[in-house]
Design brief:
By secondary structure, the protein is an alpha+beta fold. It folds into three domains: 85 residues, Rossmann fold; 65 residues, ATP-grasp fold, A domain (Dna Ligase, domain 1, 2-Layer Sandwich); 106 residues, 2-Layer Sandwich (D-amino Acid Aminotransferase, Chain A, domain 1), CATH 3.30.470.20. A five-stranded antiparallel beta sheet has the order 11-10-9-12-13. It has a four-stranded parallel beta sheet with strand order 2-1-3-4, with helices on both faces. The protein is globular and about 60 Å long.
Length: 286
């Protein structure tokens, strides 16, 4: 019998839903606290009773990423793989992968100093969006509508001790409706899609910032773009975020590695955790 471990550092709706689904399906499973796992170069797979396939669900990007690398070193099958997590967790690398695979995405500039960042902003014109290359839930994302604001934000970034703050990810502000689209991809299937609407007085559509959700039809265009984007970053269980550019059609702006689906589950007619568990069991049996 296949055994599934759900690795996490915080038990949220998603982890509970995945665990409950394994119980209903009669699949042996357990939730494992990522913070309690210690792995060494001398460790062996048999030292850890973690089952046949592991769902990496850590909220902490770096904890999840390097724990995944360590578990894969021991020979465990992890969803998603280290390479996928590394790509999706870094907006700069994600943008490169999308461009390499000719997937439409917002025009983006990378700069590596405050001076070159400000010069890039001047050359590209307003409005723009400045994003941290690592981060989630819309944190640290700033709309840039004039040079004075841009200069102040860059000055603030320069005072941050993080070396990642010295890398500037500057993106065009897409002319779109007050919503984006999240399509959840499981393996080679686009299982559900939702519209995420901005809350009042908020331009970001993140559900964590009060955004509202609505079921979206999975059109052929959405399905094709979501599957191509998922393949570009390495595949697995992913959330592909797109915007409806009024001038260029659908563009992919992000691919999420540890995809949250509470909002999607509240409106979808698809059993999202069931699809994820079935995929994990299928992978374990390969």
């Amino acid at each position: 019998m296949v055994e599934v471990s759900i690795i996490c550092d915080k038990v949220r709706f998603e982890e509970k839903a995945l665990y409950e689904k394994t119980q209903k399906k009669g699949i042996k499973s357990k939730i494992v606290d990522a913070k309690t796992i210690t792995i060494g170069t001398h460790s062996k797979k048999k030292d850890f009773l973690l089952g046949d396939v592991l769902l990496q669900r850590s909220v902490s990007y770096y904890r999840g990423l390097y724990l995944t690398a360590s578990l894969e070193y021991l020979g465990f099958k992890v969803i998603n793989r280290f390479e996928v997590g590394q790509t999706c967790g870094n907006k700069l690398i994600t943008s490169i992968k999308l461009a390499e695979n000719k997937i439409p995405s917002p025009k983006t500039q990378f700069a590596f100093s405050a001076e070159s960042g400000l010069e890039s902003i001047k050359n590209n014109g307003f409005p723009l969006v400045l994003k941290p290359i690592v981060g989630s839930w819309g944190r640290g994302i700033y709309p840039l509508r004039d040079l004075e604001t841009a200069s102040m934000i860059i000055e603030m970034r320069e005072e941050d001790d993080s070396p990642l703050s010295r890398i500037y990810y500057i993106q065009e502000m897409v002319d779109r409706p007050p919503r984006d689209i999240r399509c959840i991809v499981v393996g080679d299937q686009a299982v559900t899609a939702i519209y995420r609407y901005s809350s009042q007085s908020e331009w970001r559509t993140n559900v964590a910032r009060g955004g509202k959700v609505e079921l979206a039809p999975i059109t052929k265009e959405i399905e094709d773009l979501a599957l191509r984007a998922a393949k570009a970053v390495g595949g697995g269980i992913l959330g592909v975020d797109m915007m409806e550019d009024k001038h260029h059609g659908l563009v992919v702006h992000e691919v999420n590695n540890t995809v949250e689906f509470r909002g999607a589950a509240s409106v979808s007619n698809v059993d999202i955790p069931s699809e994820m568990i079935d995929y994990a069991v299928k992978l374990a049996r390969k």
